[in-house]
From TrEMBL:
Physiological role: Attaches a formyl group to the free amino group of methionyl-tRNA(fMet). The formyl group appears to play a dual role in the initiator identity of N-formylmethionyl-tRNA by promoting its recognition by IF2 and preventing the misappropriation of this tRNA by the elongation apparatus.
Span list, region Disordered: 290-309
Taxon lineage: Bacteria, Bacillati, Actinomycetota, Actinomycetes, Mycobacteriales
Comp. bias regions, Basic and acidic residues: 298-309
Protein name as it appears in the record: Methionyl-tRNA formyltransferase
Length: 309
């Protein structure tokens, strides 16, 4: 099929690469978000999907208003039979959705109708789900509600961060998307409506929401930190310092500590929660490199009066 691929972040790249390499499809253009500021200097840089397109000589579309009449006409001029979407990052309205004859097919990183929205992997980890997956479905105006073509499942490991789980799903999902488009092309696949029950929503996680709440039970704190690793990244205030925190472990054998209380040992740093303490892993102070929590605590000269808040 003649395809336009829409995507922006790194997890979308395996799907784009798979379709570019497929002898059954022709990726005539790539649609991605405009260059965004990155790094300390805030210099605009292309998205990971844009970089792949530029490196492989694929025409690149970066509209600031993808639903504008001008861009709808530009996409129509390319005459795509179908558009494939993986984490593009913008809502698509009816006029744009109507351009390709076979519609827009989205790869979403959850088992729909669970965790519709921008942060399905993070939501699944934070909720304590043990199984997740990826789903291909036909996009319609409502959020992630279209009929489903196919799914793959993935076990959530006890120590998975969102980044690790998303990396695995991006690979298995790329295969699912390619298989789905093959089936649409040869007419062997028919989408099935999503069930009305079991709908959950996973909105984008803000930086403020990634702040650790030490009053919650330890297992909730542990899951929430993994869910926002690496992005947007868990953090806490310790004194007047805002520090980033990597994954922690629950210390079932330790005596309870008040929520936010810090206990510094020779080799470990524990912080109290609403139940058992957790042992800090990696800590990153402002302007510093990530380091082992015990080494950081010695350098920061923590005493018993400091608290995590």
């Amino acid at each position: 099929m003649r395809l336009v691929f829409a995507g922006t972040p790194e997890p979308a790249v395996p799907s784009l690469a798979r379709l570019v390499e497929s002898p059954r499809h022709d990726v005539v253009a790539v649609l991605t978000r405009p260059d965004a500021a990155s790094g300390r200097r805030g210099k605009p840089s292309p998205s990971p999907v844009a970089r792949y397109a530029l490196e492989h000589g694929i025409p690149l579309l970066r509209p600031s208003r993808p639903n504008s009449e001008e861009f709808v006409a530009e996409l129509a001029a390319l005459a795509p039979e179908c558009c494939a979407v993986v984490a593009y990052g913008a809502l698509l309205k009816e006029q744009l959705l109507a351009v390709p004859e076979r519609g827009w097919i989205n790869l979403h990183f959850s088992l729909l109708p669970a965790w519709r929205g921008a942060a399905p992997v993070q939501a699944a980890i934070a909720a304590g789900d043990t199984v997740t997956g990826a789903t291909t479905f036909q996009i319609e105006p409502a959020l992630d509600s279209g009929p489903v073509y196919g799914v793959v499942t993935e076990t959530i490991q006890p120590t998975d961060t969102a980044g690790e789980l998303l990396e695995r799903l991006s690979i298995s999902g790329a295969q699912l998307l390619a298989t789905t488009l093959d089936g649409i092309a040869d007419g062997s696949l028919t989408p099935v409506p999503q069930p009305a029950d079991g709908v959950t929503i996973a909105p984008k996680i803000t930086v403020e929401e990634a702040r650790v709440r030490w009053d919650l039970p330890a297992h909730v704190v542990e899951r929430r930190i993994r869910a926002v690793t690496p992005n947007p990244g868990a953090w806490s205030m310790i004194g007047d310092l805002r520090v980033k925190l990597g994954p922690v472990t629950v210390d079932e054998a330790a005596d309870p500590l008040p929520p936010g209380a810090i206990q510094v040992g020779r080799k470990e740093v524990r912080v109290g929660t609403g139940s058992q303490p957790v042992v800090l892993g990696v800590v990153q102070a402002p302007g510093k490199k990530p380091m082992n929590a015990a080494d950081w605590a010695r350098g920061a000269r923590l005493d018993g009066t400091r608290r995590a808040e």
